[in-house]
Specification:
The complex is a heterodimer.
Chain A lengths: L5 H13 L12 H8 L3 H15 L7 E2 L2 E7 L2 E8 L6 E2 L5 E5 L5 E7 L16 E8 L5 E3 L4 E6 L4 E8 L5 E5 L6 E6 L2 H16 L5 H7 L5 H11 L4 H11 L5 H17 L1
Antiparallel strand pairs in A: 1-2, 2-3, 3-10, 4-11, 5-8, 5-10, 6-7, 6-9, 11-12
Chain B lengths: L2 E3 L9 H11 L5 H4 L3 H7 L5 H11 L12 E7 L2 E8 L2 H5 L13 E2 L5 E7 L4 E6 L16 E7 L5 E4 L4 E6 L5 E8 L11 E3 L4 E4 L5 H15 L2 H13 L3 H13 L4 H9 L4 H15 L1
Antiparallel strand pairs in B: 1-8, 2-3, 3-10, 4-11, 5-8, 5-10, 6-7, 6-9, 11-12
Helix pairs in contact in B: 6-8, 7-8, 8-9, 9-10
Classes of the chains: A alpha+beta, B alpha+beta.
Chain lengths: 274, 294
C-alpha cells in the first residue's frame, strides 16, 4: 500500500521516528501528523486501491477485519479505517491510546465516563463504577483523543460513521465491561489474543501433563499478565507439585492482590493435605 | 454424508511429511482426492507428543510466531491452499469452573464449513456431534430462510476416528466432551473458499440463522460498506464494476448498497440490482423498490 500512497509512507516514517514503544505517552506527540494525514485525502484513495485489487482478483483479501480496513500495522501501533455502526451491549474500556477522526460528512457523538480514582486495570473489582463526565461531538476534520487509562467512551452516530483510527497496541492487560444501567463493572477480558492463547495453552499443557512442559510453565509463571501467571502455576501442579509449590510461594508476594490471596489459600490447603 | 473412515494401525507420520504429501499429491479442489490424505493425517495422530511439543514451543515464544486468530486452535503448519491445526475441546465442567472461557470455543452452534476438511481424534474421550446435510443450491442465502436439514447421525468422535466434512453440504453441531479432547484437522483454505459463505443454522426453527461476522465474505462486505460511506467518484465506478461482475452474491449486494449510499437516485441502483442473477440480490432489490414506492 505504501508505494501508491506517499502520504502513508510519510506518516509511517514520522511515527517510527517519534513513537517510543517503551513510552506510550509519546503517542500524543503525533497529533499534528495524524491531522495532516487526515487532510490528505489518503483514506478514500486507500480504499479505492483495495477495491481495484478486488476487481482484478475476486478472491483478493487485504488486511480486513470486521468493520475495519487496516492501513498499516506495525509493532506497537496501527492505523485503520473503522466503521462505527451501533452502541454495544456494555460500555467497554479501551485498553489502548487512540486518535479518532470521522471522515465524510458524519459526526461521532460520544459520552465520556471517568474511571474511579483508585482504578487498577489489572485488578478486576465489580464494585468499581463509572462516573458520567459529559458528552461531546467530533465532526469532520476533528480529532478525538482517547485517554483510555482514565476514561471510557460510549459512541453514538445517527448513521454508520467511518473514522480514521490511529491506535497504540494495548497498554493495559484487560478490557473492562460496565453495565449500561448501573455503570458497575461486570467483566474484564484479556486485551490481547496472545494472553488468552497463553492461558489456554497453560490449561492444555496441565491436562496433557507431560514432564517436558514443566520448564515452559515455570517460564510462563513469571509472565507480565497476572492471569497468565496464575494459569501457569495452577497447571504446573499437574506436572510437578514441588515446582508448583515454589511458584505459589513466589506468588504469595505477587503485586496482584488476587494472586497473593489465591496463592496463600492454596498453600494453606496444600500444607493441610501434607 | 460426512464420511467416517476406519483406518487400521497407521504408521507414525511427521508434520513435514504430511505437508509435503498434500502439497504434491493432493488436488485440493477434489473431495475424493483429499480423502487420500486420511491415512497420513491418521498417522500424524500417532505422534503422541506432537501437541505438547508444539504448545511448549508456542509458550516459549509467547505465541509471537505464525498463529491462528483463535485460542481454540493451534497452528501446526501448512502449504499453498491448506493448513494443519490442532483443535482443543474443553469439557463443560472446566468452562463452568472458569478454567477456560466459553466464548472461545465453538459449541452448541450448528454450522457448515465453506471448505472441505479432514479431522482425526487425537486425544481425550472426544466430543459428540450431530450431523445433518442440506442442499446449498436450494437456498437463496437470506437469514431466516427455511432450510431442509436432514439429520444423518450422532457421532461420538473418539481418538483415532477420521472424518471428512463436505464443504457447504454437511452441517454439524458439537457438544462439549467429558474431558479435554483434541482433534487434528487438515483444512482446505484456497482462494475458492473466500468466495463461498459459511452459514449458521437454527436447528429448532430449521432456518438459516446468519453468517459469521468473522468470515472472509463478511469482512469484504465491511470494506464495501466503508466505501459506501466515504468513497469518491472513482469508488463509485469500482463499486459499479464489482456489482456487475463479482462472483459472490453477498459481495454484489454490498456493492449495490454502497452505491445507493451516495446515489442521487437510489431507485436506479435497485432497478439494476433487480436484474442480478442471484435471487438473494434481486429479491432484496425488489423489496427496496417497494419500500421506496410506499
Amino acid at each position: 500500500m505504501h508505494a501508491s500512497h506517499p502520504e502513508l509512507s510519510h506518516f509511517v516514517a514520522r511515527v517510527e521516528q517519534s513513537f517510543d514503544r517503551e513510552d506510550p505517552q509519546s503517542f500524543w506527540t503525533l497529533q499534528d501528523d495524524f491531522i495532516a494525514l487526515l487532510r490528505s485525502g489518503f483514506p478514500a484513495a486507500a480504499l479505492n486501491n483495495e477495491l481495484a485489487q478486488l476487481a482484478q482478483n475476486p478472491a483478493y483479501q487485504g488486511d480486513w477485519q470486521t468493520n475495519q480496513l487496516v492501513l498499516h500495522r506495525a509493532r506497537g501501533w496501527a492505523l485503520a479505517l473503522w466503521l462505527y455502526e451501533r452502541p454495544r451491549r456494555y460500555l467497554h474500556s479501551t485498553p489502548y491510546y487512540g486518535m479518532l477522526a470521522p471522515l465524510g460528512d458524519d459526526c461521532l457523538h460520544y459520552e465520556v465516563y471517568e474511571l474511579p480514582a483508585d482504578h487498577r486495570n489489572e485488578v478486576f473489582d465489580p464494585a468499581q463504577r463509572l462516573s458520567p463526565a459529559g458528552a461531546g461531538l467530533v465532526g469532520p476534520g476533528g480529532v478525538l483523543l482517547l485517554h483510555s487509562d482514565r476514561q471510557v467512551y460510549d459512541f453514538r452516530s445517527a448513521r454508520p460513521c467511518v473514522t480514521l483510527k490511529f491506535t497504540t497496541a494495548a497498554v493495559q492487560p484487560m478490557e473492562w465491561l460496565f453495565a449500561r444501567d448501573t455503570l458497575y463493572a461486570v467483566q474484564a477480558n484479556d486485551s490481547t489474543l496472545d494472553s488468552t492463547q497463553l492461558r489456554v495453552a497453560a490449561y492444555t499443557l496441565g491436562r496433557l501433563a507431560h514432564p517436558s512442559s514443566r520448564e515452559p510453565l515455570e517460564y510462563l509463571s513469571r509472565h507480565a499478565h497476572h492471569a497468565v501467571r496464575w494459569a501457569a502455576v495452577r497447571n504446573l501442579a499437574q506436572i510437578d507439585r514441588e515446582a508448583a509449590l515454589a511458584g505459589l510461594e513466589r506468588m504469595s508476594v505477587d503485586p496482584h492482590p488476587h494472586l497473593r490471596r489465591a496463592a496463600a489459600e492454596t498453600l494453606r490447603r496444600a500444607r493441610r493435605e501434607v | 454424508m460426512a464420511i467416517t473412515l476406519n483406518l487400521e494401525a497407521p504408521r507414525r507420520v511427521g508434520v513435514e511429511e504430511l505437508i509435503d504429501f498434500v502439497a504434491h499429491e493432493i488436488d485440493l479442489r477434489d473431495p475424493q482426492n483429499i480423502l487420500a490424505a486420511a491415512p497420513l493425517l491418521s498417522g500424524l495422530a500417532e505422534d503422541r507428543e506432537l501437541v505438547t511439543r508444539r504448545l511448549n514451543e508456542e509458550v516459549r515464544r509467547l505465541f509471537k510466531g505464525p498463529a491462528l486468530s483463535s485460542a481454540q486452535s493451534l497452528f501446526l503448519g501448512g502449504g499453498k491452499g491448506f493448513y494443519l491445526r490442532a483443535n482443543l475441546w474443553p469439557p463443560a465442567a472446566d468452562i463452568a469452573g472458569g478454567l477456560v472461557t466459553r466464548d472461545r470455543f465453538s459449541y452448541d452452534l450448528a454450522h457448515d464449513h465453506n471448505y472441505n476438511f479432514l479431522t482425526v481424534g487425537y486425544s481425550g474421550p472426544g466430543y459428540c456431534s450431530d450431523i445433518y446435510e442440506y442442499d446449498r443450491e436450494t437456498l437463496s442465502g437470506e437469514p431466516g430462510e427455511p432450510v431442509a436439514l436432514r439429520f444423518l447421525e450422532r457421532v461420538h468422535f473418539r481418538t483415532g476416528m477420521v472424518m471428512f466434512y463436505r464443504a457447504s453440504k454437511d452441517v454439524h453441531i458439537q457438544y462439549p466432551p467429558e474431558d479435554l479432547s483434541i482433534s487434528l484437522n487438515l483444512m482446505v483454505a484456497d482462494a475458492h473458499t473466500r468466495l463461498r459463505d459459511q452459514l449458521f443454522f437454527d436447528l429448532e426453527r430449521r432456518v438459516l440463522l446468519d453468517y459469521p461476522a468473522s468470515a472472509d465474505i463478511s469482512k469484504r462486505v465491511s470494506i464495501l460498506r466503508l466505501a459506501g460511506r466515504i468513497g469518491d467518484q472513482n469508488t463509485r465506478q469500482l463499486l459499479s464494476d464489482l456489482a456487475s461482475r463479482h462472483p459472490c452474491q453477498r459481495t454484489r449486494w454490498a456493492c449495490y448498497e454502497a452505491l445507493a449510499e451516495g446515489a442521487s437516485c437510489t431507485a436506479a441502483v435497485w432497478e439494476t440490482a433487480c436484474r442480478d442473477p442471484a435471487p438473494l440480490v434481486a429479491g432484496r432489490a425488489r423489496r427496496r423498490l417497494v419500500t421506496l414506492a410506499a
